[in-house]
Hints:
The structure is a homodimer.
Chain A: E1 6-12, E2 17-23, E3 28-34, H1 46-57, E4 62-65, E5 80-81, H2 86-91, E6 94-97, E7 100-102, E8 106-108, E9 115-117, H3 120-129, E10 137-141, E11 146-152, E12 155-162, H4 164-174, H5 189-200, H6 204-216, H7 225-241, E13 250-254, H8 256-268, E14 273-277, H9 278-290
Parallel strand pairs in A: 1-4, 4-7, 5-8, 10-13, 13-14
Antiparallel strand pairs in A: 1-2, 2-3, 6-7, 8-9, 10-11, 11-12
Helix pairs in contact in A: 3-9, 4-7, 5-7, 6-7, 7-8
Amino acid sequence: xxxxxxxxxxxxxxxxxxxxxxxxxxxxxxxxxxxxxxxxxxxxxxxxxxxxxxxxxxxxxxxxxxxxxxxxxxxxxxxxxxxxxxxxxxxxxxxxxxxxxxxxxxxxxxxxxxxxxxxxxxxxxxxxxxxxxxxxxxxxxxxxxxxxxxxxxxxxxxxxxxxxxxxxxxxxxxxxxxxxxxxxxxxxxxxxxxxxxxxxxxxxxxxxxxxxxxxxxxxxxxxxxxxxxxxxxxxxxxxxxxxxxxxxxxxxxxxxxxxxxxxxxxxxxxxxxxxxxxxxxxxxxxxxxxxxxx
Amino acid sequence: xxxxxxxxxxxxxxxxxxxxxxxxxxxxxxxxxxxxxxxxxxxxxxxxxxxxxxxxxxxxxxxxxxxxxxxxxxxxxxxxxxxxxxxxxxxxxxxxxxxxxxxxxxxxxxxxxxxxxxxxxxxxxxxxxxxxxxxxxxxxxxxxxxxxxxxxxxxxxxxxxxxxxxxxxxxxxxxxxxxxxxxxxxxxxxxxxxxxxxxxxxxxxxxxxxxxxxxxxxxxxxxxxxxxxxxxxxxxxxxxxxxxxxxxxxxxxxxxxxxxxxxxxxxxxxxxxxxxxxxxxxxxxxxxxxxxxx
Lengths: 294, 294
C-alpha cells in the first residue's frame, strides 16, 4: 500500500469532516462528509474513527488535516511558525504510522501577533501548486473563522483570523437577534446595505443592536434582517482584512456559497477579486504533500 | 388603596424581575428578585404573574417597567420618541386598571438612528429627580445591553445601545472561547490590557479570536482570558460611547459590580467618571411617577 497508488485526504474539523479518495493521478475518485468532527470523538475513540474513514473510502494511506492535529485531537501536530513553506509543513508532518500523516497547523506570533490556523494551510499550498493562487497575494478564506492570509513567494507570511462565521452563528442561535436571523442570507440590497455599514462603521456591537431596533421602529423589514446582518459582519471583516498593506487583487477561497458573499463585499470595497473553490485546492494540496511521502 | 399610601415598583425584564415596595415617603420597605421574566410567562399568564407580585409584597398599586410593556409583554405600552421628558412618560402610561400602570419605552429614531430602551428610563428620570444625575450630561447604563444616554435639560435627548453584556454572555456559553471565559472577571492588569485594546482597536471580531490564539501560543495566561475579554468588550463599548459630542463628565448608573468595570474603562479613556446605584435611581423614578397617579 504505497501513497503514490492513491490515498485518502481528510479535512477533519471541530464539528465536521470531509474525506476525499485521491487516485494515483491526483484526481478525486470518491468522497464523503459527515458530522464526526473532532469534538464528537470520545476519549480513546480516534482509532475507531480513523478505521471508519477507511470503511467509507477504502484501505488506503490517510492524510489528516485540521483540528484532528490539535491538542484535543488524535495526535498533536504542533504549530509551525510563519513564514511557513510547503516543504516545512511536510517536514513537520506527524506520523502515527507509515500509513497515516497528520498535517501541523501554522502559527503567526511575530511581535504582537497571535493567530493560528489548522486545515486552511493545505488549501493555500494546494492553490499555489495548482496555479489557482498567486504566490504573492492576499487571500481571504471564509468559514467559521475567516482567515486573511498574505502569501509571499509561495510562503504563508502572515495571517489574521476574524470570527465572523461563528459570531453570526451564536447571534442566530442564542441572542436577542435570533428570531430575526432565521431567514435565508442572500445577495441583494439588504446584504449590500449591511456591507456598506460594516465597511464604514467601527461600532459593530452597537450596529448589531440597531438591527432589531430598526425592525421594531419600522425602518427595516424583518425579512431583510438576516442578509443585512450577514452583510454587516462580512463588511466589518473585509474592512479589517483590507487594512493589510499588500497587492490590490484579492482571492477568496472556500465553499462557493460563502466565497460569493465575501467577493461581493470586497467588490463593494472597490478591490478586484476572484473566487477559487476550496475543495479543489484541498485535494491539490493533499496531493502535493502525498507526493513526498512513502 | 391609594398610590400615595405606598405602591410596588417592578423592573420586569426579559429574564428577571425585581420588585420594590415603596412606602408613602418614597422609601423602600421590602423587595424581591426572581427569574419570572417576561419570556417565562405563558400565554394568558400575566394576571397570575401580577397577582404573584402582590402575594410577595402586599396588595398595593403596581408600577411596571421594562419588557413587560413590550409587544410580547402583558399590555403593550408603545415607545415614546426622543427627546423624552418625565412628564411625557407619565402622560403615556398604560393603565390596565386604576391599580396598575405600565411605563412606555423610549425610541430614538431621528435621522439614521434606530434605538429603543425599556426600563432604563425610570432609572434615568429617577436619578435626575433624586439629584444623582446632572440633567445635562452623558450617562452610561451597563447591563445586557449597555445604553449611552445624552441628557439635556432633564430630557432623554439621544441614546445608543451597545450589546456588550449579551456578546460576552453568548461567547462564554456558546463559542470557541467558552472554556476560556468561565473564569471570574475582575479589575486588574488583564482587564486593563483588554480595555486599552478595545479603546484603540477597531477590529473586535479579530481581537476576539486572538484571545484564544494568545493562550495557545503561550503569550497570555488562560486564567486572565475572562477579564481580558471583558475589558476588550467594555473598552470597545466605551470607545463607541465617548464618540458622543458632549460634556466631559460621565456618570455610570447600574449594578455596582458592572458600574465599577465601566468606570475603570472610562477612567482609562481619560474621562472623569462617577458611579450611581441603579436600584436607588429606579425607586426614586418610580416614586416620581407614582406621585402623579391616583
